[in-house]
Design a protein that fits this description.
The protein is of the alpha/beta class and 285 residues long. Helix content is 24%, strand content 33%. It contains six helices and 17 strands. Helix 1 runs parallel beside helix 2.
């Protein structure tokens, strides 16, 4: 398992009964997690002295219960600063487990010895975009949500990357890639973090089981002759590391490099366990 263990402003304190107790900077949140199917005593004081609690509804969805939480606050990861706020379906605007991938590709960018162009698809609030830009890459950031792209720009400004070479694109990711192929554009690296299900800005339906492999093959057409890396993340049950490994190996078979895939996770400070948080597949030259 690849573990995101370099955080100072974030930690998973404890997990029990379908929930995780987390510290986001100075604030303690309780949020549901489908991986936490065990039952241990909730002895940590944060369970009782939380700043906010997201309650899952048995009918689907859920809602936040706030005790003492600002509308927005920030946390840091190295030189990066992220603006956080609680919004629909339990999220805060950041997936901390992805830091293990940020560290991996940042080192590859720094050691490349050449200019690196990165395409980040389903780029959300810009964690991977900012990590790549801070490492010296020029980045094309694509997301179908205008609100998420605006949020990512705020994170860039907070991180001192307002003038970094980042192209901000609000578009359906598949259609953008198809246009980039027609334009003859190429990238040294691709990052994608596709949702299990979603809709594009014009109502385009995305189902990961049907759409992710065709998109990986399309993106392979965008790669330069000697690509630096290719990263695919999945939070979808069924897309196990072995499946990611096989898809990437098959789609990128003409390139010389190595493919690896693992679960990614976060350390749990009270128990020493690691909470699984999806999977990632990596190609690297």
């Amino acid at each position: 398992m690849w573990i995101a263990n370099n955080w100072k402003d974030y930690e998973v304190i404890d997990c029990s009964e379908g929930e995780k107790l987390e510290r986001w900077g100075n604030y303690i949140l309780v949020r549901p997690d489908p991986q936490v199917i065990w039952d241990t005593p909730k002895a940590e004081k944060g369970w009782r002295k939380r700043n906010a609690h997201y309650h899952r509804s048995k009918k689907g969805g859920g809602e936040w219960e706030f005790f003492d939480l600002p509308e927005q606050w920030s946390i840091h990861y190295g030189s990066l600063t992220f603006q956080l706020k609680p919004f629909s379906f339990k999220h805060t605007g950041l997936f901390p487990e992805q830091a293990v991938n940020w560290d991996w590709f940042s080192e590859k960018i720094k050691k490349a010895g050449r200019p690196v162009k990165v395409l980040n698809l389903f780029a959300y609030t810009g964690g991977a975009t900012l990590a790549a830009a801070a490492a010296g890459a020029s980045v094309t950031h694509v997301d179908a949500s205008k609100g998420m792209v605006t949020w990512a720009k705020e994170n860039a400004l907070s991180s001192g990357l307002g003038d970094a070479p980042i192209r901000w694109i609000v578009d359906d990711c598949v259609k953008f890639v198809e246009r980039e192929i027609r334009r003859g554009n190429h990238y040294d690296a691709v990052i994608m973090d596709p949702p299990s299900y979603g809709r594009g800005p014009k109502g385009e339906i995305w189902k990961i089981e049907e759409a992710v492999y065709p998109l990986i093959k399309l993106c392979a057409e965008l790669l330069t002759e000697e690509p630096l890396f290719f990263l695919v993340n999945s939070y979808t049950t069924g897309l196990q590391p072995a499946v990611l490994h096989y898809m990437i190996s098959t789609a990128l078979k003409k390139y010389h490099g190595t493919v690896s895939a693992e679960e990614i996770g976060l350390p749990v400070s009270s128990s020493g366990l690691v909470l699984p948080c999806g999977a990632s597949g990596r190609f690297e030259s």
